[in-house]
Amino acid sequence: MEILKENGWKLARINSSHHIFSKEDRRPVSVPLHGKKDLGDFGKEILSQAGIKIKRK
Predict the structure, then answer these.
(1) I need a labelling partner for 54 at 20 to 30 A (CA). Which of 2, 24, 42, 45 fits?
(2) In the chain, what are the domain boundaries?
(3) Which residues contact 47 (CB under 8 A, 6 or more apart)?
(4) How far apart are CA 42 and CA 8, in angstroms?
(5) pLDDT over 90 percentage in the chain
(6) Assigned superfamily of 2-50
(7) Which own/partner pairs from 18-26 qualify as long-range (CB within 8 Å, at least 24 positions apart)?
(8) How far is CA 7 from CA 4, 34, 35, 40, in A?
């Protein structure tokens, strides 16, 4: 979630175990929170929806 905030996304609301982030002129992005589980490939999809590209090392 920090990477979303660093890229201008703001927490708009919390719906049960999902945090909904918004940014002007973009569709909202939903981030599921289920304990400390790693989002894995699903996390990559969330970043893709947010238009955030990660540089691979």
Answers:
(1) 24
(2) 2-50
(3) 3, 53, 54
(4) 21
(5) 61
(6) Hypothetical protein. (3.30.920.30)
(7) 21/50, 23/50, 26/50, 26/51
(8) 5, 23, 24, 20
